[in-house]
Amino acid sequence: MSLDHDTAGTAGPGQGVPAPADGAPLPGGSARARRDLAVRAAVDQGVLGPDAPVAGLLDVTGIRASAAALAAAFAAVTPPGTPVLHAFAVKATPLMPVLRLLHEAGIGAEVASPGELALARAAGVPPARTVLDSPAKTPAELREALALGIAVNADNPQELARIDALVRSAPTASPLGVRVNPQVGGGSIGALSTATATSKFGVPLRDEGARDRLVQAFLDRPWLTRLHAHSGSQGMPLDLLVQGVEATYELAEEINARAGRRQVDTVDIGGGLPVNFGSDDERPTHAEYARLLKERVPGLLDGRYGLVTEFGRSLLAKHGVLLARVEYVKQAGGRAVAVTHAGVQSATRTVYAPESWPLRIVAYDAAGRPRQGPATGQDVAGPACFAGDLLATDRPLPPLAAGDLVAALDTGAYYFAHHYSYNSLPRPAVHGYAVGADGTVRFSRVRAQQTTREIVAEAGGEAPDALRGL
Predict the structure, then answer these.
(1) What is the number of other CB atoms lying within 10 angstroms of the CB of residue 126?
(2) pLDDT of 312-332, one tens digit each?
(3) φ, ψ for residue 331 (rounded to 5)?
(4) Using the 8-state DSSP alphabet, how is residue 38 labeled?
(5) Helices 157-169 and 139-148, axial angle in degrees (round to 10)
(6) What are the φ/ψ torsions at residue 135 (nearest 5 degrees)?
(7) Mind listing the pLDDT tens digit for each residue in 19-48?
(8) 336: phi then psi, degrees, rounded to nearest 5
(9) Alpha carbon distance 132, 144 (integer Å)
(10) Cross-strand pairs, 323
(11) 3 state SS of 308
(12) What is the pLDDT of residues 257-299, one digit of tens each?
């Protein structure tokens, strides 16, 4: 991903940022300092303005640093030479330039659909660094993955039977495994808890007879060499994540003991590290999680097993800003309401479940400088035509005025690319940025703002008379 823009540029592809020592500054200063500079530059360089009133900004320096820190975290708890694949969960930020940047930083791809696989391939991620997970893989998806040599984790016995037939019909270099549900329980967000008793994902280990049947399935298929578990993500305490990994490791040990050999050679521990949305602090860190795994599941990290991770939100969330122009400020019921261009179309989870997905909001003036003044409770509203389209309610902020900017922080994962087409609002542009040693900000457009012509075409515009003859 080149950072060359019509007006700017910086370090070229492949020039990764090494993981800094604790407390050491990253190039361009702190994440907050880089963000403030980027917001000012977005105004100065026309990245945001009346014709582009909302945009996503990605801190490329921060992304590279997180990728390096993830690799360092697991290198610190495994012997040299241990095979470790860190595969980014493409669902978190399915933007091809992001995948290319991560690939060049040594991160592979975890995909869960034909579209995500196509993105990963277009970004240059090789099959050997790609993992396919999905609870609803079609025969065509499985056939393609096996032909390419992509690792596949079967979700259930019926899928495993499909793979049986495909393996018999054509040899494959794909590493093959099974996803298990360790049934360790859920976190605070039910929709993201995938290790509950009735989760739709994986083979449930605690259901009567399920564990024995799964062990036998491995003994009957010498080519099954992996186990996979992902217990959940945001809202999951680390203890539950570790319990899920521990249960999967214990199953691997049981299979290998029954087989009399090291049949299971790799354990995919999924992702799920939660993100702190309350401050700029990155906690918990990948290093903290890796050390806890080393303490609780030492056998998994002693070099006998290869590892796969599938982190998404924890790699990208902190490095994204959703920046929007304030169009109007009105008073209602004695409280100011700032009507902006960022709402449900980008922050869908926050709008519909604000208790689970609160976002920090930072106010800037029309020139992109941090807004000053006494904090007063204000609503930050989006542009959609329903009352609940709010990024924040009664949030203490310096008084906002028309033309000011609001920045929703920690939005680098799941906010830029999961567009909700309410009111046919356009997908916003997304730009990467980097800050030079002299404070110069350079932008690179990752995705253009969706045009009204594209909205019409997507809504059946190429076949306006399709229903008239029925």
Answers:
(1) 14
(2) 999 999 999 999 999 999 999
(3) -110, 135
(4) H
(5) 50
(6) -85, 0
(7) 444 444 555 679 999 999 999 999 999 999
(8) -75, 140
(9) 11
(10) 55, 407
(11) strand
(12) 999 999 999 999 999 999 999 999 999 999 999 999 999 999 9
